[in-house]
Amino acid sequence: MKVRLAAAVLAAFSLTACSGGVTSLDPADSGSKDAGAIVVGTANFSENVILGHLYAGVLKAKGMSVTVKPNLGSREIIVPALQQGDIDVLPEYQGSLLQYLDKNAKQTSAEDVQAALTPVLPKGLKVLPYAGAENKDVFVVTKETADKYKLKTLDDLKAASAELVLGGPAEDKTRYVGLIGLKEVYGVEFKDFKSLDAGGPLTRGALEGGDIQVANLFSTDVTIKNKGWVVLEDSKDLVPAQHVAPLINETKATAEVTAALALLNDKLTTDELSKLDAKVDNDKEDPDKVAEAWLKQQGLTS
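Above: the chain's sequence. Below: its structure in C-alpha cell form.
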C-alpha cells in the first residue's frame, strides 16, 4: 500500500512538472531568451541539478550570462528541448545517454562509449569531453536479503529472483540497463517490478521498508554505505561507463564555453561528486549553494 501511494504521488508530481512546472519549456518563454545567454537545463534528480549549477558557475566565472533551469524531467523532454534551443547544455551520463539513443549499444568502456556517442547524437548536438566523476546504475539489496539468499553478484540473483521485487524508475521496464538486460545477460526474472523514482527517496524508502528487495540506485549514493546495503557486483558488464559529460547544442559549443566546462573534468571525481550529493540529499542543503561553495574551494571561482 505504501508503495502504491508513493508511486501515485510521484506520478502526480511528474505530470505537474511536465506541464506548468517546466518553465524553460513553457510557450510563454519562447522568443524571450537572450541570444547571447546560456541556459543550463537539468534532469529531475538532485545530483543532476548540482551538476547544472557547477556548469553554470564555471561559465559565469568566465564572464558569460548563464541561467539554470532545473528539474525539467526525463531525456524524452530535455533532449528535444536541447535540440530546439530551449536550453543550451545539460549534464549527461555517457552510457545512459548512448543506450537512450541506441537501444542496441553494447559498448562498456568510457572510451568506447564516448566514441559511439558521436555518430548517434541528434543533429545539432555535441557531447564534450567527460569528467573523472562517474555515477553508475547499481542494483542494491539490504544485508538481510543478501544473507538470506546468498547474494554477492548479479549472477546470484537468478536463483532467487522469482521471489524478489525490483524497484526503480519507470524506464527500467523498457531499457537495457533494467529488466531487459538483467534477463538477457543474467537470466534474472523478478516476481514483480515497482515503478518508483530515479535513485531517490521513494526507491530508498521502499528498499528499507521491505516493499522491494532489490533497488536500482546510483553508485554515488552515500546512503548505500551508511545503511550497510550490498551492491551486487556486475561481473558481466551489463552497466556501461557512465562518466559525467556535457551535452550541448552546437550553436553554443564555442571554444570559450568548451574550455570553461573542461575545467571541471579533472577536479570533479566520483568521490567529490558523492560528497556533493550527500550535502544535498542527507544534509538538505541547496544544490546551488553546494555547487557555489565547491567551486570556490576548488579555485574555479573567486
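The first strand starts at residue 38 and ends at 41.
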